[in-house]
Amino acid sequence: MTKYLVVLGAGGFAREMYWHIQGAYPGARVVFVDDVPEGEKEIAIGGKVIPVVKDWDVDAISLDGESAGAARFQEFVLGVGDPQTKKHLVEKARASGLKPAPTVVHPLALIQDPGCRIGVGGVITPGCVLTTNVTLGDFVLLNLNTTIGHDAVLGDYVTVNPGCQISGNVTIGEGASLGTGTVTREKVTIAPGVITGAQACIVKDIDEPNVTVMGVPAKKKKA
After folding, report:
1. Considering the chain, what is the average pLDDT of its residues?
2. N or C terminus of the chain with fewer C-beta within 10 Å?
3. What's the CATH fold of domain 103-211?
4. pLDDT tens readout for residues 12-51
């Protein structure tokens, strides 16, 4: 059965998301939605030119002569990484009548424990490993080659960039964004909205929300 998905966003990660979807659902039909007026109007990908919806009216789009409405584009996943942009697009998508799809899990990702709890609307990309008793909220992005240790909890809208290593019993608050190669010690808590720099090493709790930390060990960025 063909899968139909709306990808929110039309930038570089949205194009990557197209291929993650094809890996999880071979032959899936995809349309992109982007409400940035000066953004892309269409995307050339996989030998096809795919329109980018600007007004949230997916019923008006035609793919290879097939009406999107007839094709039942009803579910969406995210194709952007910035947590605040995610929230904005999710609100718009829900207001337009779309609903979040199950998180896309690429077949080259490994979820060792089938009891891991995974929310909706996100993606687990190739090379990611979830061990046991891991909880992911809604709209979580796990980018390439990330590992998540036992009993870790990631809140809604968290973005984890490539190559991050999250140890066991780590809690990451809503809307946090981990820079490429971030490493955490076990049992630490990262407050909501925290941004970590690339290659940051988190060795103790970050209690203050919406701050940027960087370095080894990671410290709050000075104003």
Report:
1. 93
2. C
3. UDP N-Acetylglucosamine Acyltransferase; domain 1 (2.160.10)
4. 999 999 999 999 999 999 999 998 878 788 899 988 888 8
For residue 99, what are its two tokens? Answer: 């609903």
For the chain, what is the HEC assignment?
A: CCCEEEEECCCHHHHHHHHHHHHHCCCCEEEEECCCCCCCCEEEECCEEEEEECCCCHHHCEECCEECCCCCCCEEEECCCCHHHHHHHHHHHHHCCCEECECEECCCCEECCCCCEECECCEECCCCEECCCCEECCCCEECCCCEECCCCEECCCCEECCCCEECCCCEECCCCEECCCCEECCCCEECCCCEECCCCEECCCECCCCCEEECCCCEECCC
pLDDT digits (tens, 9 = 90+) for 84-137: 999 999 999 999 999 999 999 999 999 999 999 999 999 999 999 999 999 999
Omega cis (within 30) before 217: yes
Phi and psi angles of residue 166, each rounded to the nearest 5 degrees, phi first: -105, 120
CA distance linking residue 34 with residue 132, whole number of Å: 36
- At residue 22's C-alpha, the angle toward residues 107 and 100, to 5°, is 90
Q: How, if at all, do strands 66-67 and 62-63 pair?
A: antiparallel
Q: Where in the chain is the domain with CATH 2.160.10.10?
A: 103-211
pLDDT value for 70: 54
Q: How far apart are CA 180 and CA 146, in angstroms?
A: 9
**Where in the sequence of the chain do the CATH 3.40.50.20 domains occur?**
4-100
